[in-house]
Amino acid sequence: MTILADRSVALVHEWFGATGGSEQVFRHIADVVPHARRFVLWKDPGVTEVGLQESWLARTPLRHSKTIALPVMPLVWRTLSREHFDVVLSSSHAFAHTVRLGQPGHTRHLSYIHSPARYVWSPDFDGRGSGPLLAMPRRALQTVDVRLSRHVDSYAANSREVQARIRRFWDRDSIVIHPPVDVEYFVAAPSSDTVQSRDYLLGIGRWIPYKNFDLIISIAAAARMPLIIAGSGPEEDNLRKHADRIGAEVTFEVRPDRDRLRQLYWGARALLFPVHEDFGIIPVEAQACGTPVLGLRRGGLLETVVDGETGFLIDSTRAEDYVPLLRRLGELDPAQIQAHAKMFSGTEFAAKLTAWMNNECP
Question: What are the DSSP calls for 118-140, one per residue?
Fold first, then answer.
């Protein structure tokens, strides 16, 4: 469905990685507005996406360090282009929502928020933003973030969790539009000879500290169950050492492709996700495969997992507290788990995004 076909539209995203959740959302937005121009700060190595116009920051060494580049980003967004557009939609988890590509009264600026910049607003939530390089400028960046985003006409948040942050940090209202998940792909079972017998636990994501993969390994060890960890990241060596130290039976799968991920979801006894996420696409993908989720009772999981029906949620970060819940997985109905996941489909996202944009850009 094409909308705003008679308007000039710009879509704006932060740095563009190869497999991130926010990039998946941006691709779905572009599908809804296929005639729009697309702007990003830079493309990470390995990104083959076509049609992305990089900012001048991509031609500097700063593209190699998000932390160092962060204080410069508001300036980049304000000097991105001299072109004017009728509608600008930013996909923001840092400063993309501060972009201006038009005149007040003529251009409508909309912003889909994955989260207010964690590095700036929630350093205790994501330790990557608590380093000394950002400690001094953080307060100034908060002031700049609020002042340079006053022109935004309407916000959409990816979850109620993020909606609350938008209100708390920016004092702005927003609607909630959950991110699109390709549930149609994951609902379809892979060939039977590639699916294992749901005899292992599964952890998927970036191997970085706040994702709590060390806790995932400890849960599997406490349950005396094999674990497969899929993904990549700078914590790989530490996680391997942790697994060896506690005697956990862990298999690491580095950067599995999409087909392999579906096989892993379908073969898992449960997805372990003890993470405070903004939304969390991975738990929805798991549920689309009929695989229950065990995770923290906070953040996006409160919106994507029905406690006691599609998984179990717990307040604890003690590995042994998850073991009794693993014994109760037989109470859950895989068909009901799959049915729940369908409410987060790409079709649902496109319908809600279209309604929001049409309402804000009559």
Answer: HHHH-TTTSGGG-SHHHHTTHHH
